Amino acid sequence: MALFEVKNLTKKFGALAAVKDVSFEVEKGTIVGLIGPNGAGKTTLFNCAAGLFKPTAGAIFMEGREITDWPSWKIARMGVARTFQVVRPLKEMTVLENILVGAYMRTANPAEALEIAIRCMDVCFLTPNMNKRAGGLTIGNKKRLEVARALATGPKLMMLDESVAGLTSTEVKEMVNVILRLREEGITILMVEHIMEAIMPIADKIVVLNGGEKLIEAEPKVVANDPEVIRAYLGEKYSRRLQEESASKEEEDDGRHA
Ligand SMILES: Nc1ncnc2c1ncn2[C@@H]1O[C@H](COP(=O)(O)OP(=O)(O)OP(=O)(O)O)[C@@H](O)[C@H]1O
Ligand SMILES: [Mg+2]
């Protein structure tokens, strides 16, 4: 049984079908990427899964239980956490206090909450900034704070919406490391991302949405070479670069084996 499943999900806003009959599964312990052009329906799908939007049709399952139409607090209690495309920390509170807010969703015991918060702060490389006001952080730290807050709630599934958008390449690498650490902790990841460098190397599977519909679902290599995906989203430039990169990597590997 998959940890999370979306089955024939449709979400309409008036006449516009933002998500059309989309189905896919997320296996426990994997990283699944959700990609596609602007307006493809990625955030809408997230909002349906997290209980912010009521789907028009279809169903959502978590650990085999149908959670469609559940309120967001109940979905969160099932172990689904999400971050938002636009970060929204509690600006006047410190980094540690922000993460504590997440930890208190899991426990009412202050000592326990503090222990959880400190660990999440460490996983997300935020310890050196623990006493800083969240509003004054760099965007890279803010994005990782968003992840730390979600992590503190103790999720089984973490949904990340564009967690590296607007980051420098160093900050992107830091975030990718955080995501890999989450997986090491046994957390399953469903992430929306436009920065291919952040998702293609770490995803077990990629789901491509286009105009609300699922275009393809496959491992990153297959997706990156799919003519329809290249036409609709990735563009020739990315696909060529990827081929060059993998060719030079193979050469390197050959060199090492020689
Ligand atoms: N609350 C809403 N009311 C009406 N239309 C909406 C609403 N939210 C999203 N839409 C529309 O649904 C479509 C899908 O939007 P969505 O935000 O899910 O796309 P996305 O794939 O997340 O895009 P991006 O990559 O730009 O974040 C768009 O046409 C958008 O305008
Ligand atoms: Mg979006």
Describe the structure.
- Helix content is 41%, strand content 23%.
- It has 258 residues and is α/β, with parallel strands linked by helices.
- The strands form two sheets. A six-stranded mixed beta sheet has the order 6-7-8-3-9-10, with helices on both faces. A four-stranded antiparallel beta sheet has the order 2-1-4-5, with helices on one face.
- Strand 9 and strand 10 form a beta hairpin.
- The longest helix is centred in the last third of the chain and has 31 residues.
- It is globular.
- The mean pLDDT is 91.
- Magnesium ion binds next to helix 1.
Offer a quick outline of the entry:
The strands form two sheets. A six-stranded mixed sheet has the order 6-7-8-3-9-10, with helices on both faces. The chain has a four-stranded antiparallel sheet with strand order 2-1-4-5, with helices on one face.
Low-confidence stretches: none
What is the H/E string?
Answer: EEEHEEHEHHHEHEHEEHH
Number of discrete helical segments = 9
Give the helix/strand class.
alpha/beta
Number of strands: 10
Estimate the helix proportion, in percent.
40-55%
Strand order of the largest sheet: 6-7-8-3-9-10
Radius of gyration: 19 Å
First-residue to last-residue Cα separation: 43 Å
Bound molecules: adenosine-5'-triphosphate, magnesium ion
Average residue-wise pLDDT: 91
- Biggest β-sheet description: 6 strands, mixed
Tell me, briefly, the overall form.
globular
